[in-house]
Amino acid sequence: MKVQVDRRDGLTAAADVTASGVFERPEKDDTFPRSLQREDDAVRGLVKAAWARKEVKGKRKEVTVFHRPDGKGRILVIGLGPRAQFSVDTVRRAAAEVVRACRGKGARTVAFTLGSFVADNVRSEAAAAALAEGAILGDYEFLKYQSKSEGRIEEAGIHLGEEFSRDEAALKKAVANQVDLDDCVVWARDIANLPADTASPQRLADEAVALGKEFGLKVTVFDEKKLAEMGCHGILAVGGGSMAHPPRLVVLEYPGGARRGRTVAVVGKGITFDSGGISIKPAVGMQEMKFDKSGAVAVLGILRAAAALKVPPRVVGVLCCAENVPSGTSYRPGDVVRSFNGKTIEVLNTDAEGRVVLSDGLGYVVKQYHPDEVIDLATLTGAQVVALGDDTAGLVSNDEKLAQGLLSASAVSGEPVWRMPLTDYHRELVKSEVADVRNSTEIPVAGMLTAGAFLESFVGTTPWAHLDIAGPAYTTARTRKWQPAYQNVGATAFGVRLVTRYLEASPPRG
Ligand code: BES
Ligand code: ZN
Ligand code: ZN
Which residue of 29, 164, 309, 479 pairs with 160 in a disulfide if CB–CB is 3.0 to 4.6 A? Predict the structure, then answer.
């Protein structure tokens, strides 16, 4: 989808659909909103009539379409909900609702009237960016294996009209930045949606190499032979069951906008398929485990966005890629594996494989790059989904500043995150009788946090944050209904927007 900022007002543009927002009518106040007067004129009083008969109430997600008698397209009124609850995310969701309502109905272009999506607490630049984002993400669908599209919207215009035309330059800049970021989200979604027969560890490495060529990033791929020399026995153990799709560790480097900047490392879990291994998962829902690579794919998206948006710090991306399947060469419960940093891991459940591959990636990046901060992203635990649901990622961190920075970036990006505690109780639970740590605890409590305690032991004293994205990484037909309209069924690429906004706000140090 092409997104353009246009000085004209939405009604004069010859778009197939002109979309305007309206707040929910306050109780006992039936005054027709002045903001819809011009729309009403264009359809000769039909909007006012719909308002009077309470067809238009301004409730969230409420879509009403009017056909212009002059044949110049349709007017769409989207409900924004109560004014008191209005936020940037309201605008993002509304734009996506509009796009989804227009799809498959012969509309190719949509014009948003910016003024109707702006309020005291949502300024024009934030509103314009949110309209762009909602439109792009709401229009996304994964079509590689389907010839039938729901009918995409080709162009979205953000129309300033007289009210905002003097801010055109700033608005254009804000929208361009948002479009560049969401291009990376769409790109990452396309990779994350690929099934495991196609998206092997080598394929993820190939994507990294291609990305490196396009954006001038240094990319290194370590294959199973090299991993053995390095001592990455975590990744080798987890990937050992798959002779067909051997494991890879991939490192990408974006040099940073400043000459001697800070280094932020971003490490992703890249399990291309998680069958559970010898501790095999139940068949029902197992197809969803093609999304177990979402952390690594998010890292690819973040590196692309870092380069496209030229964020200040140096960024090192690490993808820990392996296929977790049962076979005669699989690792087993009871095995003890030595991670890159020398620590030993007692394997009690081969389905707790994410933390085992991440132990190598974290240990490696800390030793090799001495980063100022490490952020990892992983579809790590079912416990995350139980605790926080499908929309909110769990955050575990050993560093106050980093955690706060990510929470701020969460508010800006619209990707929800909730911080959870990490205490000696959790550290105690991952201690092993036979090794330094165990990959699964004796009692099934605080699964997201014991996983965090496990990871913490591989970063030493480096400021570190762990994002458990098991729930928000993807949407299914079953969970789609509860998600915002900008989230179609399939991969979300959760974390790309969040971490990129964090990196953008991160000052260069040096
Ligand atoms: N990939 C799964 C976690 C997951 C669950 C991701 C649901 C997305 C949706 C992970 O490897 C796993 O199986 N974790 C186990 C850990 C347990 C064995 C300690 C879990 O959460 O049950
Ligand atoms: Zn697993
Ligand atoms: Zn997994």
Answer: 164
